[in-house]
């Protein structure tokens, strides 16, 4: 998908297209879903710690 003018890209269409690409890469083994889960878990722990530090 090529965007030629400002405002042409619909956010919903972008999100749907992005997810199609990610799903295809997961199916093809280009993205290791287990590694992604580890990264997400680490980010969640970091976010929780930041919230505790603020509170």
How would you describe this structure to a colleague?
The chain is mainly α and about 55 residues long. It has a domain at about 20-55. It has helices spanning about 10-25, 35-55. The protein is flat. The model has no long low-confidence stretch (mean pLDDT about 80).
For the structure shown, list the relevant keywords.
single chain; mainly alpha; 2 helices
The main β sheet shows up as:
none
| N-to-C span | 44 Å
Question: How many helical stretches?
Answer: 2
Query: What percentage of amino acids are in beta strands?
Result: under 5%
User: Portion of residues in helices?
Assistant: over 70%
Q: What integer value in Å does the Rg equal?
A: 17 Å
Low-pLDDT windows of residues:
none
Total number of β-strand segments? Answer: 0
Mean pLDDT: 79
Indicate the structural class. Answer: mainly alpha
SSE topology string: HH
Silhouette? flat
List the helices and strands and how they pair.
Blueprint (H helix, E strand, L loop, with lengths): L10 H17 L5 H22 L1
Task: Summarize the entry for a quick read.
It is built from two helices and no strands. It has 55 residues and is mostly helical.
């Amino acid at each position: 998908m090529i965007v030629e003018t400002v405002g042409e890209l619909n956010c919903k269409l972008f999100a749907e297209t992005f997810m199609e690409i990610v799903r295809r890469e997961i199916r093809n083994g280009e993205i290791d879903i287990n590694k992604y889960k580890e990264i997400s878990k680490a980010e969640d722990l970091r976010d929780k710690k930041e919230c505790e530090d603020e509170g």
